[in-house]
Amino acid sequence: KMGQNMQKVGKNLTVGLTAPIVAFGAIALKNWDQQEKAIAQVEAGLQSTGNAVGYTSEQLQKMAADLQNNSLFGDEEILQGATAQLLTFTNIAGTQFARTQQAAIDLSTRLGGDLKSASIQLGKALNDPVANLSALSRSGIQFSKEQKTVINSLVATNKLADAQTIILDELEKQYGGAGAAAAKAGLGPFKQLSNTLGDLAEDFGAIIAEYLLPFVSKIKELAASFKALSP
User: Could you give the CA distance from residue 105 to residue 225 in angstroms, rounded to a whole number?
Assistant: First the structure.
């Protein structure tokens, strides 16, 4: 009878305690993996462009975390879909880079598109306004004839940053605040809570990975020795 009772307690512990811990561990590792891969793409972009953007990886990560707090996007999604994409456009740097990330979030939120597409579209337009500004107009972002003339003139006189400022000012005028508004409306606060819990899970995932990864090489060695055995 005591043995049967102990078996019952064991089954209850498995269902009520062990299984949830294992499930949380899997989620934590997954979140950590997504964050690490996003950071790796950002750092690869910084290296390949010679850090033309003027920010360190840590600064860009902090920027993504701040943007997460005022949008529906998680910081890993921002790093992967906006930061890493915009780093390929080496004419966008400094304050203009930070403003472009915010503009991409607002644009994708208002138009219901994905962040990566919005970032690439804005990156092309800001990197070379003369060649790509018309693409923004086809997407519904309107510029007056006077604005287009001034932008072209500034680019022709090597004042690209000033031309970018005009474009970003107009984007803020038409779409500014869309990301923050979505984060406060409807289920937006729940999405932000989910992102915060996801960040917490990432921290647990990093701890779990630190202790599990050393076993990976040992398991690979064990598997290799089994494969080397004769039938």
Answer: 51
Alpha helices in the chain (DSSP H): 2-13, 19-48, 57-68, 75-78, 84-86, 94-111, 115-127, 129-138, 145-156, 160-175, 178-184, 188-228
Phi-psi group of 37: left, alpha or beta (phi > 0 → left; psi -120 to 50 → alpha; rest → beta): alpha
Task: Match 């780093």 to its residue by tokens.
Answer: 87
Nearest to 167 by CA among 136, 212, 192: 136
Residues in the chain: 231
Integer Cα distance of 89 and 128 in angstroms: 9
Query: What radius of gyration, in Å, describes the C-alpha atoms of the chain?
Result: 24
Closest to 126 measured CA to CA, from 111, 145, 104, 149: 104
Residue-wise pLDDT for 82-123, tens only, equals: 999 999 999 999 999 999 999 999 999 999 889 999 999 999
Task: Measure the CA–CA gap between 117 and 136, rounded to whole angstroms.
Answer: 12
42 Cβ partners below 8 Å, 6+ apart?
A: 57, 60, 61, 79, 83, 84, 87
**Nearest to residue 216, comparing CAs of 208, 23, 28, 98?**
208
pTM of the entire structure?
Answer: 0.82
